[in-house]
């Protein structure tokens, strides 16, 4: 009889509620992929669908609203516009008097007029470079 290595199955009931929401599942080419928030650069909403952009340059489409995904993600994600949710860890520059944010992937995201004060207040404690037009 062969000896198989023993293993212990993790007790899923010990997971906290927050642990179960610490990733977003997406369907890609017939497979389910679990994305952790730290790999998500930004999200772009279009109606009932949202594009998720990752730090490795991939783009995923999910059939969830931006609002529902924002509720799943941590406070480091900033709602900068009705169509954009940005991971603050990937913001590298603040452009045009905080009306635009440049992300590490090169994407420039517009900040809505209503969100400028809130976003600049949240980003003021960071060492981001401000570039005026």
UniProtKB/TrEMBL annotation:
Domain HTH LytTR-type positions: 24-125
PROSITE patterns associated with the record: HTH_LYTTR (PS50930)
Molecular-function GO terms, alphabetical: DNA binding; phosphorelay response regulator activity
Pfam family, one: LytTR
Entry-linked InterPro entries: LytR-like, LytTR_DNA-bd_dom
Protein's name according to its UniProt entry: LytTR family transcriptional regulator
Organism, scientific name: Dyadobacter jiangsuensis
Upper lineage: Bacteria, Pseudomonadati, Bacteroidota, Cytophagia, Cytophagales
